[in-house]
Amino acid sequence: MNEKKGFFGKLVAGLQKTRDNIIAGVDSIFSGFSAIDEEFYEEIEEILIMGDLGIQTTMSIVEDLKKKVKEQGIKDPSECKQLLMDSIREQMDLGENAYEFENRKSVLLIIGVNGVGKTTSVGKLAGQMKDDGKKVIVAAADTFRAAAIEQLTEWARRAGVDIIAQQEGSDPAAVVFDAVAAAKSRQADVLICDTAGRLHNKKNLMEELKKINRIIDKEYPDAYRETLVVLDGTTGQNALVQAKQFMEVADITGIILTKLDGTAKGGIAVAIQSELGIPVKYIGVGEKIDDLQKFNANEFVNALFHADEKVEA
């Protein structure tokens, strides 16, 4: 529980800028308005949009808030805060946030553009799964960037996991082919593939991912599959746009949202989940290996509103 508390503390600290952006404004509305009227709702809308929850998500939240206020006959604006928290939480609830890959022999494909923390996320996940007692292999299939191969090699060394790599510029699918063979022969529980994410050249990326997927389907048909896209939380609405673009080229099963500790745009976690219907599975609030953690909507909303951690997932 201590460790969980520790991460909750980091999450509270990490969402400081977002909270200053959203909550200070929300609190002043709740205390500044004496009646719940159209202007009251408009002010809430404006603040949520500023916090990068996005227009569509904000409208859904405010509509839901209006409905609850009406149903419960609430007249005092100060009573709306809990309702607002509940509405945001519901926007993020996509049912079971599945981590099925932890229980099966699985292959994780991690995609994302340069600079979002993709290779670092692969390293952190590998380290955490190894600590959980799993046999992990990582594949350096982002072969277009020499630094990515070096970086992943260093993470693999730190985490104490095997790495399958070739030279810069080699065929990513060939790396994955070798990695699948290694995963089978070494009885690995999880194979994590660091793949490229050159969105400016979508057609090539799509072909590359198709080729990789074909190899895994053919050589490792019984492996459970997960495709996670890494997005940089500091880019706000641009992260949402990027997620949509990746959805066009791959069957995305989840999001890793990094760098939430350096941004006032943390509301993007709500927008992604609400608008795209893809669960945010991991969030990063720092550089250390345990600063990447499973996402929990209750904790996130509580940290955002600085509420006590009273809602257990």
**Strand arrangement, major sheet:** 3-2-4-1-5-6-7-8
Q: What is the residue-mean pLDDT, rounded to a whole number?
A: 89
Poorly predicted regions: 309-313
Which superfamily, in CATH terms, is the homologous superfamily of the largest domain?
Answer: P-loop containing nucleotide triphosphate hydrolases
- The end-to-end distance, rounded to whole angstroms, is 13 Å
Q: β content, as a range? A: 5-15%
What's the number of extended β-strand segments?
8
Helix/strand-derived class? alpha/beta
Tell me about the biggest sheet?
8 strands, mixed
**What proportion of the residues is helical, as a percent range?**
40-55%
Note the run of SSEs as H and E. HHHHHEHEHEHEHEHEHEEH
Subunit structure: Part of the signal recognition particle protein translocation system, which is composed of SRP and FtsY.
Protein name: Signal recognition particle receptor FtsY
Catalytic activity: GTP + H2O = GDP + phosphate + H(+)
Pfam families: SRP54, SRP54_N
